[in-house]
Every structure is written in structure tokens, then in C-alpha cells.
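#structure-requests
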Amino acid sequence: MENHKHHIVEYLTNLYVWVGLAVLTIVTIWVSEFDLKMLTVAVALGVATVKAVLVLMYFMHLKFDSKILTVMVIVTLIVFLSMIVFTFFDYTFRA
């Protein structure tokens, strides 16, 4: 059998992450009230990215897992982000 070390995250840490996610959700709602023109989508995606990283690192325990799993997640995210960027290029340059 493999020897796995289980990592227990403290309740206070989970509470901090939850509060951070709630604050970022409030920021998302607050920012949506302003007309930021071309930056609207960038700001929304930026806040969503920070929230996703918090969920990945703490609730999915990626922070405490092996580094190869972290590399695989990063590569997957890069491929996903490149598809999003290509989609926006298509949308931006439509006639």
C-alpha cells in the first residue's frame, strides 16, 4: 500500500477562504453596476479566476497535493484559456 499523508485544513482557514469567496462575489456584483466598456469582461474573468484558484487550492486540496497534479491542472487551464482567447478574437474581428 502507498503511504499517503492526509492533510487536514483548519476550520478557520476554510472560513477565511469562504469569506474571501463571498467578498469576491460581492465585488463581482458591485463592479457589474459600472459601465467599464471593454474592461467589463476582463474584470469579470479576473475575479472569476481568483475565485477559481481559491477553490482549486483549498477546497480541492491542490495546494497540498503532488506537484505533477498541479502541473496537469495548469496545462489544462492554459489550453482552456487559449480557447477562450481564440473565441474572443473571432468575436472581436467579425465584420
